[in-house]
Amino acid sequence: IDEYDKEIKLFEIIGDNIVIADAIISIDKINEILNIEIPEDGFETLGGFIFDLLGRVPKKGEKIKYQNCQMIIEQVVKNRIRRVKIIKELPQTENNIPDKDV
């Protein structure tokens, strides 16, 4: 156990390509967890990114689409984003289609 394990749990992986994250998690960390590329221009946290993207504080339950991710606002407290569910959408490929020859 290192010092990071004792910190507040910033994210929880709840399924394949689905994470619930605290809005203070770094963009760098969320990019690493989901293997995505959210830009870090002018903000360091997931909450800062969402606020910058929308230009306002989102409401609970609001859905934001960014590239191949859907972000669902799970919690807002006193005009601050607290928790966000991020779902990374996988591209549709021919492998998803059942093989007719089987």
TrEMBL record:
SMART domains: CorC_HlyC. The keyword Repeat applies. Signal peptide: none annotated. The keyword GTP-binding does not apply. Gene3D superfamilies: 3.30.465.10. GO terms for cellular component: plasma membrane. Keywords: CBS domain, Repeat. This is Transporter-associated domain-containing protein. It comes from marine sediment metagenome.
